[in-house]
Amino acid sequence: MPGQGSPLRVATLPTGLLECLGFAGVLFGWASLVFVFKIEHYFEELCEPHAGLMGNATGQDDCKAQDERFSLIFTLASFMNNFMTFPTGYIFDRFKTTVARLIAIFFYTSATLMIAFISADSAVLLFLAMPMLTVGGNLFLITNLQVGNLFGKHRSTIITLYNGAFDSSSAVFLIIKLLYEQGISLRASFIFLSVCSAWHVGRTFLLMPWGHIPYPLPPNYSYGPWPGLGSGTFCFHSLCSGNGTRGEKKETAEPEKLDLLSEEFQSPEEEAPGPGQQQEALSFWSHVLSQRFAWHLVWLSVIQLWHYLFIGTLNSLLTNLAVGDRALVSSYTNAFAVTQFFGVLCAPWNGLLMDRLKQKFQKEAQKTGSPASEVALLSAVPSLALTSLLCLGFALCASVRVLPLQYVTFILQVISRSFLYGGNAAFLTLVFPSEHFGKLLGLLMALSAIVSLLQFPIFTLIKGPLWGDLFYVNVTLVLFTLLTFVHPFLVYRECWRKEPSPATA
């Protein structure tokens, strides 16, 4: 690898991947952890007395309050995972890598220690511990994404892998569950995760930069963790990067607007904007109030709600379908967690699909004289439609009350979820100016997080008035899933308009 600090770069890449894989997104292995919590009698006092005498909180009707409590914890933690994207990104922008990582380590270590020493009597502390675990893991991912800037043309691949590793880290709770079944206590497992903070601290001071990793890298860029080395200006939310050193004034080098997540998805609109586009790019709210943004928010929110609701209620669903057979519930919980691990392999395929289609459509545009911006945007349509189709298949399988069919549900769920977030970021880079990307992404994730709060009242509705009958809820959510196909259809229609379409169309 050319440039100075090559050994550090090579060491930073796999250790960052391991950090994301082992720590960043563990929350989404919640079903495995709930299984252990129930064995440890967490919130079992909420069960009916005759269920408690069995020493097992598996009765759906008898322990619906217990299931609701676990669902509420996951709802709060998953909400924080999305809603805190904007403020944690701001912390990274404002206070730079080292400070952001130290905050992440504090939250993560505090959470793992708290979970380690929580007992059934103090289980209410999970309401604090799980959101802290989520925020810390999110900051680990954010600070590691910039590592892709060190590897030039492989930048997008590395960033996609890191996001896939974030999804796959949910398998960590499966490992904890399996160790628990082999006699390793929950406390011992989480104390080990707490001790791993030494690993995070070591990477922070020995491998990661004090400031930010710029993109593109300046000539003779020296990568290192010490102040003055590897310095530069890098903005997570404004997606700006500069080649200056830490002491340079902003006036000496105009930051080049580049996309953190994938430069390869940059649209021709951004590469060569016209006068009207330049004027419109200055208006953030014109993009927020556009039809494209509104339908993309619907698309993301509905699909994400399905995933969060499924993960948060999986233990209750399996318990019901298995008629309280704990061994069978354990087996299916393990199968679900194993499929989640393969998210790191599924994630890059969506980006590869969009890259290939973009290249194909751009060649066609050169031959036919079609507007390059509209043809490039067309490359996002198959990704949006395929993600909706995968979610629809996942939703239909999840709605059928046949236990063996849930293996298919697990596979479709992990593929759909892997496609969702990569396609989300790629679409934003194609449609909106890069200087607004971070703000739009933060706002989009925050609004979708508010929608994700619906999972708790939905779960309460199922457990309460509907007496565990999922039929009406599933039919309603499937209909909303069909609504997500409107988004790729509108994008496709707009791509073939004869007249240029404004972003606020």
Automatic annotation (TrEMBL):
GO terms for molecular function: transmembrane transporter activity. The lineage of its organism: Eukaryota, Metazoa, Chordata, Craniata, Vertebrata. It is a multi-pass membrane protein. PANTHER family: EQUILIBRATIVE NUCLEOBASE TRANSPORTER 1, SOLUTE CARRIER FAMILY 43 MEMBER 3-RELATED. The chain crosses the membrane at residues 12-37, 70-92, 99-118, 124-147, 159-180, 293-311, 331-354, 375-401, 407-428, 440-459, 471-492. This is Solute carrier family 43 member 3 isoform X1. Keywords: Membrane, Transmembrane, Transmembrane helix. Its main location: membrane. It is found in: Membrane. InterPro entries: MFS (IPR011701), MFS_trans_sf (IPR036259), SLC43A3 (IPR027197). The gene is SLC43A3. GO terms for cellular component: membrane.
